[in-house]
Each structure stands twice: as C-alpha cells, then as structure tokens.
Amino acid sequence: MGAEIAQVTPLSPQQDGGQPRPADRARPADRARRGDGVLPDVGVLPVLPALRELLPGGLPRGSVVAAGDWSLLCLALAAGASLAGAWCAIAGLPALGVAAAAGAGLDPGRLLLIADPGAGWPHVLASLLDGCDLVLLRPPSQPSAQVRRRLEAVTRRHGGVLVVAGDWAGAQCRLSVARQEWAGIGTGHGRLRARRVQVVADGRGAAARPLSRWLWLPGPDGAVTAVSAGHGEPEAGGGPDIGELGIGELGIGELGIGWPGDAIPRRSAG
C-alpha cells in the first residue's frame, strides 16, 4: 500500500540463467546459520579497518547507527559488511549511485538501490530489512515515535543493521564529524586532493563513552583510511598544516566546494 517496490534496482550480475541462486534468496539470518558467505560473526557485521577504533567489534546486528548528512561516511559504514559478503540496500539517496557505492568499497553484486522509497517508506524499509544484512536509509520524513519503535523492532527481529543518513532518536550509536580539513590547496594554487575529518562516535550502552578518530575521508587515493599519528593527524588545538584548507565548522556546501558523491540533498518539507 503506497510502497513502490518496483523502484528497487537489483545490481547483482545475472547467474544461473537469470535466476538468483537459492543461497541468495535466503534471508541473512538463515544464510548465517547455514554458514553461507564469509561473514565472520553472526552477531556483528564487520567494519573497515579505519572504523574499528570507533566501532570496536563492528556493527551489532539489530542495531541502528545514525551518521548524519555525511554520505561518504555512511557508505564507509556499509563497506566493511559488503566486502565480507553481506547484502546491502541504499534507500532514499538518489544522488548516490553505483559508482559512488563501488568507489567507497561496496560490492555492486550484493547491492540494491531504491532512489525514492515513497510515502510508504516504512513498509519498504521493513521489506529490505527482511532480506538484507544492512540498509542505508535517508528517511523522506521524520517518523513518529510509534513508527520508529516498530522499525527498530523489525531491525532486531531480522538481525539486520540500519544505518541512517541523518538523525534517529533511538540510535544505539551516532557518528558525527567534529572537524574537517581539505588537503591540496596551497597559497593561491593547487587542487583539492583529500579530506581529513575528525569523527566522533558515541551513543548508548557500550557506545556511551565517546571515541574520536581522524580519518582520510577520502584520502589522496580515494580510499577511507585512518590518519596515522605523526603522518597528517593535527595536534590537539592545532590548525591545518601549510598547504591545506581548514574548513573548521563550516560545511563544504557553504564554501561552494563539494566532493563527488558526498552531497546528500535535503527534501523540502512540502
């Protein structure tokens, strides 16, 4: 009712005469019990090495993670699970396509894209959580507390992980960017080559103690990696190094600069 499931775009390559294999049709929890795929732990989904200090142990199944309006950070959260064999879906982010997802490390062969889940997005999300290990969602509208709790229950029941591109009142973990600096701009010359960001993770329970880490998001090679101490990590309270543009608290859009695939358009209230 109102949920346009036909908008789902499967990106997996055709196999076995165009029919999905039985293992691919199975629900994530069933695949995990059978031992299919390479996911190392049925209780958590793995994350990229750059995120392991922020999310020790990985992403617990049944949890909700809010990552704000940082599209590359959202994709990085999904990349580790995707590379380990998880099925992932991206809903409500029409600006993020296959190239952006693959560039961030996701496997296009195990990815679904739903550009616009429509007014019935809670039903679409529930269906995706039934068939995918991880769903990255930008809600078209703020859900009521009742709808939010119901979707959290669905996430727990199916053992998936919901990554929200935005805020979510019931999130177990929140990631935010406290500071960012672009590299490559000199004194009136040069090109943007990479971006360093200070990511802070906090939340509830085991995530109650805030953790902070400097990351390349992305690095000069386009990858998401940790900034090594003494190799680009700013000193506490220090400004940007020579040859770098310090953005501080300003968003990139406010300066008229952007990074391909890193802008999450906001929908108007109407």
Polypeptide structure, described:
This protein has 270 residues and is an alpha/beta fold. It folds into 2 domains: 160 residues, P-loop containing nucleotide triphosphate hydrolases (Rossmann fold); 82 residues, no CATH class. 20% of the residues lie in helices and 24% in strands. Strands 1, 4, 5, 6, 7, 8, 9, 10, 11, 12 and 13 form an 11-stranded mixed β-sheet that branches. A two-stranded antiparallel ribbon has the order 2-3. The longest helix is centred in the middle third of the chain and has 14 residues. The protein is globular, with a radius of gyration of 19 Å. The two termini are 21 Å apart. The N terminus and C terminus are likely disordered.
How is this fold's topology laid out?
Blueprint: E1 9-10, H1 22-25, H2 28-34, E2 44-45, E3 59-60, E4 64-66, H3 71-83, E5 88-91, H4 98-103, E6 111-114, H5 121-131, E7 134-137, H6 145-158, E8 161-164, E9 173-185, E10 190-203, E11 211-216, E12 225-226, E13 244-248
Parallel strand pairs: 4-8, 4-9, 5-6, 5-7, 7-8
Antiparallel strand pairs: 1-6, 2-3, 9-10, 9-13, 10-11, 11-12
Helix pairs in contact: 5-6
